[in-house]
Amino acid sequence: MASLVKEDHFEESHKYMGFALHQAKLALEALEVPAGCVITEDGKVIASGRNRRNETRNATRHAEMEAIDELVGPWRKDGLSPSQVAERFSKCVLYVTCEPCIICASALSFLGIKEVYYGCANDKFGGCGSVLSLHLVSSDISEKTQRGKGYKCRGGIMADEAVSLFKCFYEQGNPNAPKPHRPVVQR
Ligand SMILES: [Zn+2]
């Protein structure tokens, strides 16, 4: 069976990763760890998110969770059943600047997202290959029940840009200190 691989996907993934990087920059400006993402459906951005851990004082408010909530809330309000929500997610693609952590990677598998593209690897907590490979699920039915349905995943999309934002963040020193993120230099 021949499968047509869309080679223009390179351009497309860079376009959406650019939007995700924009979200990460907004996080950086808000003194948050700069990670950002967008979710697309049929080539249209339908949600975006950025890390808001400090703002919300909640360590799980990762960019992915913010974007997921932006969708699930209204879908449920519209009366979509869990299976209809799953149906919508199965058409969605996530672009995120840093490899999803174990929690987010596993949530994405349960939600049944179609594909995930990420920028740089997350060596400490990455759930899409770095620490665990939660996007991979065997065809074993019981494993699917335990781990969700898995998804296609590809990393290294505009990774340098994502890394340079992290560098900016860590070069600021203590991000929670009450000071502007770009110190005023007086000479
Ligand atoms: Zn996460």
Automatic annotation (TrEMBL):
GO terms for molecular function: tRNA-specific adenosine-34 deaminase activity; zinc ion binding. Pfam families: dCMP_cyt_deam_1. Gene3D superfamilies: Cytidine Deaminase, domain 2. One of its GO terms (biological process) is tRNA wobble adenosine to inosine editing. InterPro entries: APOBEC/CMP_deaminase_Zn-bd, CMP_dCMP_dom, Cytidine_deaminase-like. It comes from the Eukaryota. Signal peptide: none annotated. Keywords: Hydrolase, Metal-binding, Zinc. Residues 11-139 form the CMP/dCMP-type deaminase domain. SUPFAM superfamilies: Cytidine deaminase-like. This is CMP/dCMP-type deaminase domain-containing protein. It comes from Brassica oleracea var. oleracea.
